[in-house]
Amino acid sequence: VQEDTGSIQKAFAVGKSTMKVHYIDVGQGSAVLVQSGSHFMLVDGGDRDASSKVVSYLKRQKVKKLDYVVVSHYDADHLNGVVGALNVFPVKCVIAPDYTTDSRVYQSYCNIIAQKKIATTRPKVGAKYSLGKAKFTILAPNRSSYTNENDYSVALKLVNGRNRFVITGDAETESEYEMLAGKQSLSCDVYMAGHHGSANASSEKFLQAMKPKYTVISCGADNKYGHPAQGAMSRFKAIGTKIFRTDQQGTIIATSNGSSIKWNKSPSRLWSYREYGSSSLIAADGLKSQISGSKNTSGGTTAQGSALAKGQKYIGNINSKKFHLPSCRGLPYEKNRVYFKSIAAAHKAGYSPCGLCHPEG
After folding, report:
1. Pairing of strands 352-353, 322-324
2. Per-residue confidence at 204, pLDDT binned at 50, 70, 90?
């Protein structure tokens, strides 16, 4: 894989197919346009405030119709822009997960699907599709029921010649471990960071299986979730992948000719927490402490020590509804934490075990 720090070259070797992957800057959300020849696929569409931007972007790329629209899952920051695109462009097929939610945007999505009678299919792991001269394979979800809706995310692997791209939506560690246990190869050149670079995605084993040369993070500047998390960034750095970030660099475009990949931007050089403008601490193991408070001699923090000293043994994430061991590298920020004295208490509160640290042993 090559980099091109200038503009994308227009000419590629004769006889090789060209595929462009546009990671559209939609702020805190996700929207990816894939183009192979005159064929297009949209994977998610960003939140409501980005919907018109996505539609305008597709029009500038001369999109007349979409062969596929992939809805990774039904969170608003992925689905709103899809509804906008479905309203404007003819669509041959929508691929979307098999669960429902009670949100207003989900209802709008169902209404436009019914109104336009758009063919919809559920993702089946291993199913293969063609997009011009490129193709893609479904990697997830591997089950029909999850506690965490993020794990319903449709994950796929795009292939153009020898170039491979993996997109996993907001899939977290539970889905990642299922993909690892599956029969599909995860090796890739480019990985779109799961769940916008959340600490609860991009697990070490998953990254080792993919070994991506490049990772693209789609997130909003100064977003309230703290994406990308320093834990994830540290794991990216450990495998030597080069980073692109929409919050810092805007829309990122990868152009594949089947043997090499060129980029419209140079990789980001931002790694350390100080470069994110964060006030969080660097823990003794080199990962950012996911809680506030000052360091203690054990490499933790006084906030953590205080809570655990009261007999609390597990740490829950109020957003993901997962509970963790205190030693887990995927711990949430303090403001997103709840503490439990027992596994039973965590389950009673509606929390499920983290797939990374396996608190139930």
Report:
1. parallel
2. very high
Do 329 and 231 meet the contact criterion of CB atoms below 8 Å apart?
yes
- Alpha-carbon gap, residue 321 to 318, rounded angstroms: 5
Q: CA-CA distance, 78 to 91, in Å (whole number)?
A: 17
Mean of pLDDT values over 158-187:
97
Distance in angstroms (rounded) separating the CA atoms of residues 36 and 23? 15
357's tokens: 């640290």
Q: Are 158 and 21 in contact (CB under 8 A)?
A: yes
SS3 314: strand
Digit-coded pLDDT (tens) for 266-296: 999 876 433 433 333 332 223 333 333 333 3
Amino acid at 262: K
Given the DSSP bridges, would you call strands 163-167 and 190-192 parallel, antiparallel or unpaired? parallel
- The whole-model pTM stands at 0.74
The whole-angstrom separation of Cα 330 and Cα 172 is 11
User: pLDDT (tens digit, 9 = 90+) per residue, 96-119?
Assistant: 999 999 999 999 999 999 999 999
DSSP 210-265: H--SEEEE---TT-TT-SSPHHHHHHHHHHT-EEEEHHHH-SEEEEE-SS-EEESS
Query: Three-class SS of residue 179?
Result: helix
